[in-house]
Design brief:
Blueprint lengths: L9 H23 L5 H15 L11 H22 L2 H13 L1
Helix pairs in contact: 1-4, 2-3
C-alpha cells in the first residue's frame, strides 16, 4: 500500500500564511452569525478556553515542544469540527463575501 506524503511544501505553507487573516475573518463571521448552531460555537469557545487554561494535558514547562503541540492539535481539531457543523450555505456565503473585499 502506497502512502502519499503529508508534508506541506514551502509553497503550501506560504499560501496558508497568506490566507490566515481570511481564515480568522471567516471564523469570526461564522461565530457571530445567528444561523450557525450554538453547539458549533461552543466547540470554538471550549478550544480557546483549553488553550488559555493554565492546566494542560501536556504541561508546557515539562514538555516544551509537545506542550505546545497539544494546544495546536486542539485548535486544529476544533476549527475543522466547527466548520463541519456550520451550515454549508452560510460558510459559502461568508467565504464569498470575504473574497469580494
Amino acid at each position: 500500500m502506497t502512502r502519499t506524503p503529508t508534508n506541506l511544501t514551502t509553497w503550501q505553507v506560504l499560501r496558508l500564511l497568506w490566507h490566515l487573516p481570511n481564515f480568522f475573518k471567516l471564523y469570526w463571521r461564522l461565530f457571530t452569525d445567528r444561523r450557525v448552531p450554538l453547539r458549533a460555537k461552543a466547540i470554538l469557545v471550549a478550544a480557546v478556553l483549553y488553550v488559555l487554561d493554565p492546566i494542560d494535558l501536556l504541561p508546557d514547562f515539562l514538555f516544551p515542544f509537545f506542550g505546545m503541540l497539544d494546544d495546536l492539535a486542539v485548535c486544529i481539531f476544533a476549527a475543522r469540527w466547527f466548520i463541519s457543523l456550520c451550515p454549508p450555505d452560510v460558510v459559502q456565503e461568508q467565504v464569498r463575501e470575504i473574497s469580494e473585499e
